[in-house]
Write a structure and sequence with these properties.
single chain; about 425 residues; alpha+beta; Creatine Amidinohydrolase, Chain A, domain 1; Creatine Amidinohydrolase; 2 domains; six-stranded mixed beta sheet; three-stranded antiparallel beta sheet; 13 helices; 16 strands; about 35% helix; binds manganese (II) ion
Amino acid sequence: MKYLPIDQKLFIENRANLIKHLPARSIAVFNSNDIMPTNADGTMPFRQNNDLFYLTGIDQEESILVLFPDFHHEHQREILFLKETNEHIAIWEGHKYTKEEAYETSGIRSVYWLSQFENVFNTLMAEAETVYLNSNEHIRAVVEVETRDARFVKWCKEHYPLHTYKKVAPLMHDLRAIKHPIEIKQLQQACDITNKGFRRILEFVKPGVTEYEIEAEFIHEFIRNRSKGFAYTPIIASGYNACVLHYIENNQPCRDGDLILFDVGAEYANYNADMSRTIPVNGKYTQRQKDVYNAVLRVQRASMDILRPGTTIPEYHKEVGKIMESELIGLGLLDKTDVKNQNPESPLYKKYFMHGTSHHLGLDVHDVGNIYQKIKPGMVFTVEPGIYIREESMGIRLENNIVIQENGYFDLMRDIPIEVEEIEELMNR
Ligand SMILES: [Mn+2]
């Protein structure tokens, strides 16, 4: 891991919060992610299961967390099972957690090797009535590969058919939606690293550079600041490419007079930043570009003001739509009368602004959290309006990450340049 150690207090408190929701005689099990294969003996970089990470801080494959809050023996109420290590394994496979390190990281005192799992689990299951198991219930997830958690559900039900099974995912979504101050600290770090990357490219961009050269500048800055790299596949879209919402080719030269849209964020300690900025290739926005840019900026700021406790994401998106509508009329892109007569089921603004404005952000980029529940302090959201004008080969999106507070919000990207004047100044130094 490149990131600095996280205070184990986070994981201890996260477990304590989950346990409050478990009824008597229940057991909860969380599995790590698999290391995914590529070809031959190649593998993808390891990415921990976010629920297991949230509850333990353990960032290693083949790990299992078992919670049984009211088990008779206090020392077996929370147990971590890890891949065995010793001096021989350390030489051949590299470093794995020792039991002591796993305790330091997670605050869990009972750390066993994986080979003991079936025995210990069998003892616990004899006393348990209800079993909480994990599943990926993200509403946008397309899952074709069977995860370790999914395999465990099958195994468990086959070996223990008479227990009551429940899903732990809704509990985890509710908990993870509200961020602990230590999590906010990690998210701030991810945003600060993203800021460094953005400032680096403001000095680098000029007519003729290619989108992939810009991508290389970002990742260089990210990794040298203890990030694993991009939080998600970056979008570096100049000119018309910015109108292709999921453009990730990043292989075109940037032309004088065009804008470049970046949707780029750094990962830090498994937490993610999600930033969008739009800058002029030659360091100066044209009047038209400036007008559209400032319209997007006004929508962003107005959106931040109405994203507050008590509302829900669908209600909020409706309000943002109205703000966007009036800006598009102001830019001459929509006609007032047409808007008045529009079908409310498919509002006209969607021609120029076709995506959502905000999503939860955290260990997942599109983080878990029920969007139909009322927004609460401590939730972290992106705010990312955009205007895409295909006939003008121009796409502008501005995206910040904010923490919802009792009154108002805290902008984790407050230090990342966004005003036209500041961006022009930094590009022309
Ligand atoms: Mn986003």
